[in-house]
Amino acid sequence: DVKVTQSSRYLVKRTGEKVFLECVQDMDHENMFWYRQDPGLGLRLIYFSYDVKMKEKGDIPEGYSVSREKKERFSLILESASTNQTSMYLCASINQENYEQYFGPGTRLTVT
Amino acid sequence: KNEVEQSPQNLTAQEGEFITINCSYSVGISALHWLQQHPGGGIVSLFMLSSGKKKHGRLIATINIQEKHSSLHITASHPRDSAVYICAVTSLQGAQKLVFGQGTRLTINP
Fold first, then answer.
1. Is some CB atom of chain B closer than 8 A to the CB atom of A54?
2. Which pLDDT band, with edges at 50, 70 and 90, does B1 fall under?
3. How far is B54 from chain A (nearest CA, A)?
4. HEC secondary structure over A29-89
5. Is the Cβ pair B90, A99 closer than 8 Å?
6. pLDDT of residue B28
């Protein structure tokens, strides 16, 4: 059974803290994505990676960075969390052969 | 104007009704996806299609490439179908990024 897993379902952090959100896929996919989902705004792409150590900015990269040291793991980093980063964060990977996307369960992050 | 537009944004129906959700897009695509998200839940891929029609149980998805339009149909709707349905396209440009519609919130009343 193919899987994309995320390190936490719920997370509460304080303003200014450094936050790591981790995503792991077991399908040997090269392309991985981080999205955030907000009411009324839908899903927006933060960063994506198309290979180990390769990354590209998505539509809303400000305040975020990413790390892809191993093919199966793609981490999203909030260097200094702010309240406007309270959101649902979703990781996904894609099968390049048939374009099918697989989503993780999501991490609901609250920054207080 | 968004590159992917869904309609309606909200839909409430009675159990058993036939449901249609529409999606129009304005970019060249390699595939179109229909996704489902239950309240508080993760996103599940229902269909991925690049032409024609696909059926899975009570769900049917169609796409018209020339008209840049897709529909998701639910036959004999049930309260457990209540969810947000999201249309997304894999753009021809970029590293297979998805471009999302705003979603349709479907509520099926018993």
1. no
2. low
3. 14
4. CCEEEEEEEECCCEEEEEEEEEECCEEEECCCCCCCEEEEEECCEEEEEECCCCHHHCEEE
5. yes
6. 87
